[in-house]
Every structure is written in structure tokens, then in C-alpha cells.
Amino acid sequence: MEKKLVCNASTTIHLAKLSIIETVVSQFESYMISEKVYEESVMKAKPKYGDAYVTEGLVKKGMIIVKAVKNQVLVKKLAEDFNVGEGEAETVALFLQEKASILATNDGRAIMACEIMGIPYTTSVSLIAYFAQKKPLSRQKALEALDALEKECWINKSIVLEAKNKVRGIHLE
């Protein structure tokens, strides 16, 4: 089993929309989101998007843990310093607060913050490829999820192609 993951809204939404969030969540000791991420991915999304109900159900089952970020001064500083939204800033602050193992985000500025701060991070695409290789996701389901990400979620085609090659066992280096 993997360790503690802190996830932002976009990654949580993607995994739910692709119907693989329960598989991914079950591979971690804990899958945490901040209160702001819960608000963005569930409360604001429920009226329009069915995937929000999936995420809400996993929270109710205790599979996704919603945590309050204690240091709101840090959240404001992160938002200002890295020009990220409150959800991304809370995700980084929660990662530090909980001494998590990895942070999941698709946000370019949040990724830059992770790189500058030395925070290990991953993305929706990388999670799909990783768990296809580790086998909790079938190769077929992973390839379908990557296709959907490319078509519906504005993920760069070259990034998706690289992940598909990993899933297929093709390593180009």
C-alpha cells in the first residue's frame, strides 16, 4: 500500500469523472483533501456533475479524508507567492501540515510550487500510468481513462502519449 496522498480538486475530479477514484484511493494509507478542495470538487459541483456524488460517497465512507488547514496565514502566503487559487494553496499547506508522502495536482503553478519547495508530486496522468503498471488498474481501463483525459480534460497529447506508452510497456528513452 502507498503512503499518504494529498490531492487537489482537479485531480480528484478527474479520477472521479474517469470512474477510477475508488481504485486509486484504496491504494493509499490515506487520501486527503482540504476543506476548500471538498467545497470545489463536491459542494459547488454537485448540482451539475455526477462525479461530485462519487467523491462525496467516498468521503462519507471514510475513504477520502477532508481536513482543515490550520495555518491560514501560510495558505494566503502560498496563494500570493505562487499565484495559485485557494484550493491549490490549501493542498500544499495540508501536505506540509500532515507530513504527507505525495501531493497530486494538475495545476501548473502548483506543480511549480512543489518543485521550488521540494515537495514530491504527481498528476492524474501519472497516477493512471503508475497504477496500471502496479496492476490495480487494468491496462484497458487505464488506456480508456487516458483517452478520456486527453479529450475532455485539456491534458497535453504528448504527456498522454508518454503515459500510454508506459501502460503498454513501451519505454522510449
Textual characterization of the structure:
The structure is a single chain. With 173 residues, the chain is an alpha/beta fold. The protein has two domains: 2-122, 5'-nuclease (Rossmann fold), CATH 3.40.50; 137-168. Helix content is 60%, strand content 13%. The protein contains ten helices and five strands. The protein has helices at residues 9-17, 21-25, 35-43, 51-60, 72-82, 86-98, 108-117, 124-134, 139-152, 157-168, and strands spanning 2-7, 28-34, 64-67, 102-104, 121-122. The chain has a five-stranded parallel sheet. Helix 1 packs parallel to helix 3 and helix 5 (72-82) crosses helix 6. The longest helix is centred in the C-terminal third of the chain and has 14 residues, at 139-152. It is globular, with a radius of gyration of 15 Å.
Structural class: alpha/beta
Overall outline: globular
Fourth-level CATH superfamily of the largest domain: 5'-nuclease
Strand % is 5-15%
Our count of helices gives 10
**Mean pLDDT value:** 91
The count of domains is: 2
- The CATH architecture of the largest domain is 3-Layer(aba) Sandwich
- Helix share, percent: 55-70%
CATH fold descriptor of the largest domain: Rossmann fold
Query: What is the chain-wise order of helices and strands?
Result: EHHEHHEHHEHEHHH
Itemize the secondary structure elements and their pairings.
Blueprint: E1 2-7, H1 9-17, H2 21-25, E2 28-34, H3 35-43, H4 51-60, E3 64-67, H5 72-82, H6 86-98, E4 102-104, H7 108-117, E5 121-122, H8 124-134, H9 139-152, H10 157-168
Helix pairs in contact: 1-3, 1-4, 3-4, 3-6, 5-6, 8-9, 8-10, 9-10
